What we know:
The complex is a heterodimer. Chain A is mostly helical. Helix content of chain A is about 45%, strand content about 0%. Chain A has 2 domains: about 1-35; about 55-80 and about 115-220, no CATH class. Chain A has helices at about 10-35, 40, 55-60, 65-70, 85-90, 100-110, 130-135, 140-145, 160-170, 195-205, 215-220. Chain A starts with 7 loop residues before the first helix and ends with a helix. Chain B has helices at about 1-45, 45-50, 85-90, 110-120, 125, 135-140, 150-155, 155-165, 180-200, 210. Chain B is elongated and about 115 Å long. The interface of A and B includes residues 13, 14, 62 and 83 of A.
Amino acid sequence: MPQIFPKTANMLAHMSIVGAVLAFVIFVSVLAIIYRSPYVTQVNVVREQPIPFSHQHHVEQLGIDCRYCHDTVETSGFAGMPSSETCMTCHSQIWTDQPMLQPVVQSYENEQPIEWIRVHDLPDFAYFDHSIHVQKGISCVECHGRVDQMPLVRKTETLHMSWCLECHRTPEEFIRPREHVFTMDWTPEPGEDRYAMGEALVQEYNIRKEQLTNCSICHR
Amino acid sequence: MPKRSESERNVSAAEQFTAALRPYWRWTGRALALTGIGLLAGGCHLDMWNQPKQRPLSKSEFFEDGAAARPLEDGVVPFGYADRDQVIETGVTADGQPAMEFPMELSAEVLERGRERFNIYCAMCHDQTGTGQGIIVQRGFTEPPSFHEPRLREATPGHFFDVITNGVGDMYPQRSRVVPEDRWAIAAYIRVLQLSQHATIDDVPEDAREELE
Lengths: 220, 213
């Protein structure tokens, strides 16, 4: 009777080990890919909202400033969401008969809040604050993209820790003069070196780069 | 006998196989165990992601109205507000009349702040020069009066403050978005807009008049 395991079994045994390692590596990579895929990060995925509110319509076409609706963005950690009274300052007369707007009118009349679905949502163990970023010349565009061109809001960034750190390590690349934080289509003057300008602004605004990567800044 | 030796040979082949694996097995086992623990631990992370705490404007099952943010009780005075200037806060002087004068010093910064705030909160209806032809009006909103008409040029600062705070006619109150200091700054900027259209040579300092003539 021949041997049950032929000579090649030795090879198979070694191969299976290489295979196991490979399988493990592939498994981890797939996990990592899934973790960064739009399915998990929800980047560029729009949410179904109670009212299909269009930033493109209100910001780009009507020219309403972000701060009319997100009125605490300069002064507190929370950007602020418009109350239905804020919508009614205009919609008491404009498009009032549209069925699309009925939730706003009803919310205003019944004093029931509109339940917007969060698009950006950090885990509760991470601390974020809008006011410091806005005060130090970081524009909405760097983190939310061109909201003024979005019919429906979507995330343009993963909001992963690595993304926060990328900027906290080199804010020079992203910073702009404070007065242009709300100018969505701002670009440096032609011929101006953004990096050099950034370095000057980091100095001017007293940004303490060396501590911006401390864990306790965001996990407090 | 041959049977036995055959099975012996089999055993030794199987043994060979496991023996070849043995040095690796130990590590694979450990790696698998660690991965398992890691994945299990990873699976538990949701309670740290969604902690039992409330964030601004979140929902709450606890209160009847379903909101975690609580309205202030009547008569509550926010910290630091008790000894603030009443004219700045309310726009009304002690005799119950709208303030005739600005309760703060008018500096270039105040006017600049007023310009910025006016363009954010008012210009889409009143337009940037205050004539009342803003884009929202073009889309069908009631046309507001121009700031350059005589009645409003004579209006007191306190009147502008009151309009921003409480609204007027079809204009909703803007007080929830504009804090009192900014309301005064905007009122001052409305004055600037009015002067910009109706300044006379007497408003120019004497030493600068020559340049204009």
